[in-house]
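so the lab meeting is tmrw and i was supposed to have these ready like two days ago... anyway. pasting both below. for each one the top line is the aa sequence and the line under it is the structure tokens. i havent really looked at them closely yet so no promises
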Amino acid sequence: MKYAILTLPLLLLGSCEPAPEGEPVTRTRIDGQAGAPSPLPSPSETATGTTHVESACRSIIFEDTPLTHCLATPARHRLSMDLGPSGESPYRSLTAYSGDHEANAIAFAMNAGMFDDEGKPIGYFVEDGERLQSLNTADGEGNFHTKPNGVFFGSGDTWEVRSTEDFLANVRERPEFGTQSGPMLVIDGELHPQISRDGESRFVRNAVGVDEKGRAHFVISNAAISFGKLARFYRDELSVRNALYLDGNVSALWNPATDRLDTGAPIGPIVVVERKENDDD
């Protein structure tokens, strides 16, 4: 694959907290080197005890950076947001969340959205159709306020990523789930204008995008990555027209099929991808 080298203003984003733990299971090159397999590998099958469970996630390498790509499809999965037990404080970790839920029902879970010191979302947040936080259109500093930021939301089998402005102007009905974060990585097929191709700000990061088939692509890096490289992965390899940055350094994944449970700094909102009952996994 041929990439043009661009020089754009550097976007210095990210925090300085320790990166989460968690090792990739398998790696597939998709950067055009000899012997490279398909850029969109299918989920892997991993043995857990005596039962074979298909993993929705596959580890890959994009331009020498290891990533884990998890695919949620409407036919096989349900999406929801979770902050904490009803009426209680946020979970603050996937370890706490996993201890409160049956692993065999979960395809994977990941942190999803920015939060305050108590772990509560600082932007739009809807859980089970209940809006717990209103849309945040304020200006400010940091990743969240790097406009345009955006919203990942959905109801039933329809999932979307829209910029905050687009969401405010065009979404009239409250979705079943929603989380606001920022910045957008890809907007209508174009990279965020303030993101350079491969800037010096590099941390473990995660993001989400929805393709034209309605599938949600969740990506978490297994090593430090720039905003530009993560954005280009969504645009060039996943062909996603709209992708949203979820967070960095606190980024964590729980993938029961491979026994991956990341630990690290406290998190806030969690996106949960459940297997549907008619799934034959």
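ok protien two:
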Amino acid sequence: MTDSTHNDLVIGIVGAGAMGSGIAQVAAASGRTVLVYDQRPGAASNARAGIITRMEKRVAEGKATQDAFDMLVANLQVVESLAALAGCGLIVEAIIEDLAAKRALFAELAAIVANDAVLASNTSSIPIGAIASGLPNPSRIAGLHFFNPVPVMKLVEVIRTPDTADEVVEGLTLLAREMGRVPVEVRDTPGFLVNFGGRAYTTEGLAIVHENVATTAQIDAVMRDCCGFRMGPFELMDLTGVDINYPVTAFVHQSHFSDPRLRSTPLHRYLFDVGQLGRKTGRGFFDYREGANRPSADATSSAPPARAVSLLEASEALVALAGELELTVLPADDGICPILCAPIGEDCAALSARTGADHSRLVALDLAVNTARRITVMTAPEADPAARDSVVALLSQSRAVTAIADSPGFIAQRICAMIANLGCEMAQTGLAKPQDIDTAMRLGLNYPSGPLEMTDAMGADQLYTIMTQIQRLTGDDRYRPSQWLRRRAQLGLSAMAS
């Protein structure tokens, strides 16, 4: 096979859109000659001009040297036909996400380039083996999936099919490092690692909205303030575009035989069907049109703040919060005051039924996540508004409060548990090494931590409890725990333990 790390390697890029031009830029900046081709007249030339303009700006701002700029300009070339790529040792395909189109292109390329040239696809979700099917010498075909914007995003997924030669994977991995990227090796499967693992964050947020538990604004605020995510799931989907995230979600769900853990909701499909795609159309899960107001995630109350409470199944965190708030904790329920609780994976209805506590005065607080900036309050159906409002009034003196309807696992417990559980499932099925799973999810999706790190931080036993409780209460196999999570919870092991 061609040595993908050799400095005299000539790299061909087919497709000069956002991804193709980004790959061309980082490849040329690494010192290799790069030939860019696009079947659309002028597209490759325009891409080259755009790259040069961006690099000129970086030089002017002192973020790049003149020598680096000169090298990139010299290395970046445009060609007018596929035949002009015949001398390339590596070709990276970055065309539309259509299996038939990619197969046709790879068949053309296989007939043009040398027998030892490496052919790689930048597809974000189509299995590489499906693209390579029927082609001669499939051992030289692999996936090389960059993330948008390529010059900024460091992650590269190197996808190996059962036929891909070891030297091809090793060469692409080393080349990615020399391009300044962070490569992770991933087994060939629909969605690969990031697009598969990233389903949990958005689809569980959608499930919570579907159940009328909380609003999109409330969910986003909780995930930012309590869990450290840069963006909530709904502002993230509006940014990437519903026309992007819905088809990928549907494809991954269908490709995994309708695994309920990957299921979306009718609202997701509805926005796609009616063209409310997010920021690009002015409306999505939120309204971005001029004059539109973003709904508040904060609960407010004019009620007198609670001063005395009883604690149900008092945990260390609940006792500590009561002390911080200078609450009088009654030794026994007086039949009048709010009853505070901090359930793990349960909702107020289940907790009341199990303990006999008065559901009308039960006010649940999610203390499983960071509550320094925001705390989530949950009540049962037909709850006494006075009990809830007095607790909201007290809590809102020191932090933002989000008040939601009854839900096993609140918001944050549910979403974090689903992210962690899907990460554990990726480890269980050998999709990638545990450390690579976390690296990919942090770099590819800007998560505050990887799913296995999240498992260890919250505790595998606690996350297993959350999943089993939600599965029991909902009867939905969407929440079935991964065997990887179960074993490590039962044995007290790190989620990283193999």
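from a quick look at the 2nd one: The mean pLDDT is 96. The domain at 10-188 is CATH 3.40.50.720 (Rossmann fold). will dig more after coffe
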